[in-house]
Design brief:
Layout: E1 2-6, H1 11-20, H2 24-27, E2 35-39, E3 51-55, E4 61-65, H3 89-93, E5 101-105, E6 108-113, E7 117-124, E8 127-137, E9 144-145, E10 152-157, E11 164-171, E12 176-184, E13 187-194, H4 206-210, E14 217-222, E15 225-230, E16 234-243, E17 246-258, H5 260-268, E18 273-280, E19 285-297, E20 310-316, E21 327-335, E22 338-344, E23 364-370, E24 379-380
Parallel strand pairs: 2-23, 3-24, 11-13, 20-22
Antiparallel strand pairs: 1-2, 3-4, 4-23, 5-6, 6-7, 7-8, 8-10, 9-10, 10-11, 12-13, 14-15, 15-16, 16-17, 17-19, 18-19, 19-20, 21-22
Length: about 375
């Protein structure tokens, strides 16, 4: 029997607050908000933890083990983790089957209606001519997971002149057609990007999650300067202004290029994830949020230090669930020609090391079993 109780409610839980009151320093005042799950029928108690005897109002006594009281994400900052989310990819992708997506490539427009059909046509004043079917959805095969790249795929068959298409769902920050390839005549591979598949049932490291940013650049304007961050490539600081009918770039500094050797060393040393103190309204107490970092170096020479400009980029799960876009949220010059950028990326919230905790994540389980006759101990009334 599992019962969730507030710490101030029942006689059984009352014993906990006496013990937990000594943990103020560990929780920074947060323990008054802690909730506990009390399990009264555990036949096997944990080996570690403080053991006490507690009584219910009916007089029955239980031997209980108090949980270790520490905030989640406080320790083991160097530990790398992967995500394993038990989700049904077919259900995640079901909303895609109510939409159609389009992309124009040179002369042709491609239409992808997941779960229905794929078409190729030329649009001339809203008239489709010529038009070819690239395949109808093969419901017998359905959605399948590829063992080679871990992506989910659908087959579309029996198109015009026996054309066929393989539709590949890839994790992306937005929905849309990412690429169209005609690998051999009349056989196509189309990649369809969607955030829904990012939480599918497969392990994902931080690097795999962030790979969707590989061809993206993020921008932030601060006063006179505009900052450009292109994931895995470079960071640039520039100023542009209008001269006549043209926008002209008048000043530019490179803040760094992706340093592959330095970042590979961070991964080997398990030092890519670091923590910082953060306050989130939903949990009403500061906690150590973890961020993932990358190094960019060898930028434009610095006039003051004579060295090259460099930057560290920190990626984090947005502190509030309302944030749904990947954004460059801040740029700081922490010392002369040494910069720190913060990127808020909702996809990282699916990673257990980087997720922002909710109040529910501060729950603890008190495991108890019925006290045997003759068992000694202190009875807490």
């Amino acid at each position: 029997m599992l019962t969730k109780v507030s710490i101030c409610c029942f006689v059984l839980a009352l014993a906990v607050i006496v013990k937990a009151s000594s943990q103020t320093d560990a929780f920074g005042g947060f323990q008054n908000e802690l909730k506990y799950i009390v399990s009264l029928d555990d036949s096997h108690l944990p080996e570690h933890g403080q053991k006490i005897i507690m009584s219910k109002e009916d007089g029955s006594q239980y031997e209980c083990v108090l949980p270790t009281t520490r905030l989640p994400q406080q320790d083991d900052t160097s530990k790398e983790a992967t995500v394993f989310v038990q989700s049904d990819p077919a259900k995640l992708l079901r909303p895609m089957h109510t939409k159609c997506f389009y992309i124009v490539k040179d002369y042709w427009t491609y239409e992808v209606c997941p779960g229905k059909h794929v078409s190729q046509f030329h649009d001339e004043n809203r008239i489709r001519s010529p038009e070819f079917s690239l395949g109808l959805f093969d419901a017998e095969q359905g959605l399948k997971l590829s063992e080679t790249d871990g992506n989910y795929r659908e087959q579309y068959i029996n198109g015009s002149s026996d054309r066929r298409t393989e539709l590949v769902y890839i994790c992306g920050v937005s929905e849309g057609i990412a690429s169209v390839l005609e690998n051999v005549p009349l056989q196509y591979t189309i990649q369809l990007s969607t955030p829904a598949i990012c939480d599918a049932s497969k392990p994902r490291s931080v690097e795999q999650i962030l790979a969707v940013l590989a061809d993206k650049c993020l921008y932030r304007k601060e006063s006179w300067w505009t900052f450009e961050f292109c994931y895995g490539r470079h960071i640039k600081q520039f100023h542009q202004e209008k001269q006549g009918e043209q926008i002209v770039q008048t000043s530019e500094f490179m803040l760094g290029y992706y340093n592959q050797a330095a970042n590979e060393e961070l991964v080997r040393a398990k030092n890519t994830i670091i923590s910082k103190e953060f306050t989130v309204e939903s949990v009403r107490s500061p906690f150590r949020q973890k961020t993932y970092r990358q190094i960019y170096s060898n930028g434009t020479a610095c006039d003051v230090t004579t060295g090259k400009r460099r930057a560290e980029v920190r990626f984090q799960c947005p502190p509030t669930p309302e944030e749904s876009q990947t954004l460059l949220t801040s740029v700081e010059e922490i010392s002369t020609c040494n910069y720190r950028l913060t990127v808020s990326c909702p996809l990282l919230c699916s990673h257990p090391e980087l997720a922002v905790p909710t109040e529910e994540s501060f729950s603890h389980t008190i495991k108890c079993r019925r006290k045997q006759d003759g068992q000694s101990g202190v009875v807490v009334l």
